[in-house]
Design goal:
The protein has 284 residues and is α/β, with parallel strands linked by helices. The chain has one domain (6-49, 76-279): phage-related protein like fold, CATH 3.90.1690. Helices cover 30% and strands 30% of the residues. A six-stranded mixed β-sheet has the order 5-12-9-6-8-7. The protein has a four-stranded mixed β-sheet with strand order 1-10-11-4. A two-stranded antiparallel ribbon has the order 2-3. A hairpin with a 4-residue loop joins strand 10 and strand 11. Pfam families: Phage_capsid_4.
Length: 284
């Protein structure tokens, strides 16, 4: 096994950086579902995101002038903050594991930044105008369909997505398939029940494409907010998704592999999202 040196790390920095970027965008499953504004070439840490009023054309008689429609210039400001990762790699560790560790460094760094990005997005799921569900109770299959109906009534633009904690989704799967029931309950749809059983995937309910994400974090009571939302419900001010830096500490005989990011997340059109509160305790 070849011993890895600090010079090898420096020489492989482009490969590590490329692998980190690849895994960042591969693992950040919530990022493509929201509105991302690239501000990397702009000065300042705060960027304004427009809110979207609902406009309606009017009937006008042939000889009447066209009435003016006032557009309120409301905006939501999102300020970025720093996201940091520091992986210390000692000389003894490098000598012990050899060059194979280099192949996984990029994956580890990129996955860590992606995990933080998705958690920041999921952290605003409780900030929407409408909330369904309750703490301590399981999430029922009817909640996402009601939430999707609310967004349809609010004329939320674009596709509708949903994100649930895996334990929130488990309760819905049980309800749809009666997988752990007495066998006396009938699933609402044999086709949907088979899809859930065979693929372990909720798919589409009420027009919302449902995903499971461990980025959704439970509170101290074991409850969490999932959400149904359209792309313009959440804004991401992306100043810097990722930057890699290698820093050598000769005194400590350690090479620090640093990952830097700068972004901010906020619910910019809260009427285009619905929060879903439920229990997400670990199953017994």
């Amino acid at each position: 096994m070849a011993q890895i040196t600090s010079q090898m790390l420096a020489d492989l920095e482009p490969e590590i950086r490329a692998a980190a970027f690849y895994h960042l965008y591969k693992r950040a499953i919530l990022l493509p579902l929201v509105y991302v504004k690239d501000t990397s070439g702009e000065a300042g840490l705060t960027s304004s995101f427009p809110t979207l009023p609902t406009l309606l054309a009017q009937d006008v008689a042939e000889t009447d002038p066209t009435p003016e429609t006032t557009i309120e210039s409301a905006v939501e400001d999102i300020r970025v903050s720093e996201k940091e990762l520091n992986l210390p790699l000692t000389d003894m560790t490098k000598a012990a594991v050899g060059s194979s560790i280099v192949l996984t460094i990029g994956e580890m760094v990129g996955s860590a930044m992606a995990r933080k990005l998705d958690r920041d997005i999921a952290a605003v799921f409780g900030n929407f105008t409408k909330v369904y569900g309750s703490a301590g109770a399981a999430l029922t299959a009817g909640v996402p369909t009601k939430a999707a109906a609310i967004l349809a009534n609010n004329e939320a633009p674009g596709s509708i997505y949903g994100a649930l904690h895996p334990y929130q989704a488990l309760g819905m799967k049980d309800a749809l398939t009666n997988a752990f029931g007495s066998g006396t309950m009938n699933p609402p749809s044999e086709m949907k029940a088979n899809e859930v059983l065979y693929q372990n995937y909720l798919g589409t309910l009420g027009g919302a494409h449902l995903l499971e994400s461990a980025a959704i974090q439970a509170d101290a009571n074991g409850d969490a907010y999932g959400a149904i939302f359209s792309r313009l419900a959440i804004g991401v001010n992306m100043k810097q998704p990722f930057e890699l830096e290698l820093e050598r500490n000769g005194v400590g005989r350690t090479t620090h592999i640093l990952g830097h990011g700068k972004w901010g997340v906020k619910a910019i059109n809260p009427q285009f999202g619905v929060s879903m509160l439920s229990d997400c305790s670990e199953p017994a």
